Fold this protein.
Amino acid sequence: MSGAVGETEAQVSVTDLLREGELTVRGRIREASNGVLYCTIAFRGAEAACVYKPVAGERPLWDFPDGTLAQREVAAYEVSEATGWGLVPPTVLREGPYGTGMIQLWIDAEPLDDGGDDLDDGGDDDADEGSGEDAGGADAHEGDVPEGDAQGRDAQESDSPEGDPGADGLVTRLTPLLALVAGEETVDGWKAIGLAEVGEGETALLVHADDERLRRLAVLDAVINNGDRKGGHLLTSPEGRLYAIDHGVTFNADDKLRTLLWGWAGQPLPEEALTVLARLAEELAEGAPLATRLAELITPAETEALRARVRELRHTGRHPEPSGQWPAIPWPPV
């Protein structure tokens, strides 16, 4: 259980811990655009670090007038679990010290050195140990909050792609799964996103890792219509498992897909993804358990749009491409 301690934790499921545990606020994550609190939670001898996002701390969004960001975060977890990929950390909706909110398990991970790594190859360079959610350590003392972005977690270290370093021998990692490549040609192990200005009139190619875990996430983001997939929302556990966080701007009935994961745009979906989408279509049918749970979290129009996106992905059999009707890439990208 990432972020958890206690000899009896195996007897308590993570979701039971999050739903039933005693929540203790340890500090506030100040870099977040909405109210985000770093907490610990304990239940029947199990304990974990978690994030608490009370609805009362949400800022209104004109294009998401219905429901709450917290409900959308939980809906994203429910869909992620239905895929079988487990890409979103355990997330529940419950009462807390500041009212109803989203509670999500904190994911421990190791951050990159400040400023990223300049690599003369695509291999793994050592990074300072750390821990982190959008991150820092789960060992924060009361009043101390791990530094990070929207959900309080820095970019995290993981196995990085290996490949040809390119003509000038330089790849600069922004996160373990996001990098800048000098010039306009990508290198082995990385997928091109687009050119980015890096100062003094110079540009570099923004790339993400050619990673099966990211490809699954690209499919999930297309399904839930994620309007804000940044590099800082990608966390890799010490065991190498990828988690994605910050799903408050998802499930809009209109096309809002804005992501860094365009490296597979227009390419055929893997067979695994098509199998998952077929199962999702069944679980989203009226009266099915997933559809019933989502009815408590998003609007009927959003649920129908979700079904339509799954149908479209199955019909085309391809990763979506930018629509041109909405900014395709979030900025800044981390």
Remarks:
- Helices lie at 14-20, 69-83, 212-224, 271-283, 289-295, 300-316.
